[in-house]
Amino acid sequence: MSLIPRGSFFDVDKFFDDFWSPATQRGSNVGAFFTPRVDIKEHDGHYEISAELPGVKKEDLHITLEEGILTIEAESRQESKEEKEGRVIRQERRYGKFTRSFNLGGNVSEEDISANFDNGILTITAPKVPEVTPQQRRIEVK
Fold it and tell me: Taking a C-beta distance cutoff of 8 angstroms, is the pair 46, 126 a contact?
């Protein structure tokens, strides 16, 4: 399994999309995008992908698998408000959406992939397909 993140540093289209996004405009939090930290670990029988998704609700989290590409999509909506004597002194909102994709490769059992979301941490487990060693057998000539 290669677990290569799609949209790497050399992804020119993503560079220009991000360059013009509202998140890059100075002093603007409106429509800001967020990129969660992702850890990928290889264990004996499986791969484990962990993503920090603070402020994301379970119902705003979508994981799909299509043609060997695992995609994680999430949306975050947070609002905080300070009032003094009925007047709004400060009001902040944060909205963001992100998509992250990984190429699983051929040595993963796609049917057995599972996901768990607890305390803002998404953990995806992708079991490895057991390696089959070719067996030698003698074929009788008739």
Answer: yes
49 occurs within a structural domain: yes
Q: How far apart are CA 30 and CA 15, in angstroms?
A: 20
pLDDT digits (tens, 9 = 90+) for 65-107: 988 899 999 887 766 666 667 776 666 666 678 888 989 888 8
Q: Which of 91, 97, 105 has the alpha carbon at shortest distance from 42?
A: 105
Q: How far is CA 100 from the centre of its chain?
A: 4
CATH of the domain at 52: 2.60.40.790
Its pTM stands at 0.63
Does residue 134 lie in a domain region?
A: no
The owner of tokens 């992702």 is: 38
